[in-house]
Automatic annotation (TrEMBL):
Coiled coil start-end: none
InterPro entries: NHR-like_dom_sf, Nucl_hrmn_rcpt_lig-bd, Nuclear_hormone_rcpt_NR2, Nuclear_hrmn_rcpt
Pfam families reported in the protein's UniProt record: Hormone_recep
Keyword Transcription applies: yes
Keyword terms: DNA-binding, Metal-binding, Nucleus, Receptor, Transcription, Transcription regulation, Zinc, Zinc-finger
Record flagged with keyword Membrane: no
Stretches assigned to the NR LBD domain: 1-208
Name this polypeptide is given: Nuclear receptor subfamily 2 group C member 1
PANTHER family, per database record: NUCLEAR HORMONE RECEPTOR
């Protein structure tokens, strides 16, 4: 299922964040708020690549991401030697992989737990500077809420590490340097062919919403 390639399960209800630490490997975002489905879709289109990178970092040890990226680099080098890939294109993809590898390594050194990853993904998702987003004050409110709850959680869980919150937040700007187009080519082309991630996000959201509602009904 395509939905397994995204970052977390996150539900907003009555303006309260509920982070589920068990959804550690690329699960879709499920949330509800009054801005409407179009806003929901635009948010996901704008930041799916950042959520994917965070999910990749979160699962780097389990998935042996370093080995996967090294294999891709070896394949690229072979393609360059055989002139199957232009030098400019090869350089672009190599830089992308190095950035992704560097990000995963930096997150691995910090070793965030599943709750911290969930809050970081919420902060990334609810960025008011995403293009095509309506109801910006509400988006800002959600991001501020995620930040506040992350701050509270880090203070409680890691009282001895007074700089932990800053170190976590300082990792996020690097996500904007990772190309969504190259991520799509490297990780999704073999799965969905020439179909762009943007075009299937509405269907993923619909599937995940249905799954979430089914789980909610069954748990009552």
């Amino acid at each position: 299922m395509i939905s397994t390639f995204f970052g977390f399960n996150f539900h907003l209800k009555n303006r309260c964040f509920c982070c589920d630490p068990h959804f550690t490997t690329f699960t879709m975002v499920t949330y509800s708020f009054s801005s409407g489905q179009e806003n929901e879709i635009n948010l996901m289109k704008a930041c799916w690549n950042e959520l994917f990178a965070l999910g990749l970092a979160q699962c780097s040890n389990v998935m042996n991401v370093g080995t996967i990226l090294s294999a891709i680099i070896n394949h690229l080098q072979t393609s360059l030697q055989e002139e199957k890939l232009s030098p400019d294109r090869g350089k672009l993809v190599m830089e992308h992989i190095w950035r992704m590898q560097e990000f995963c390594n930096s997150m691995s050194k910090l070793s965030p737990d599943s709750y911290e990853y969930a809050y970081l993904k919420a902060i990334v998702l609810f960025s008011p500077d995403h293009p095509g987003i309506d109801n910006i004050p509400q988006i800002e409110m959600f991001q501020e809420k995620a930040y506040t709850e992350l701050q509270d959680y880090v203070t409680r869980a890691y009282p001895e590490d007074s700089y932990r919150l800053s170190k976590l937040l300082l990792r996020l700007p690097a996500l904007r340097l990772i190309s969504a187009a190259v991520t799509e080519e490297l990780f999704f082309a073999g799965l969905i062919g020439n179909v762009q991630i943007d075009s299937i996000i509405p269907y993923i959201l619909k599937m995940e919403s249905t799954d979430y509602n089914s789980q909610t009904v069954s748990s009552v």
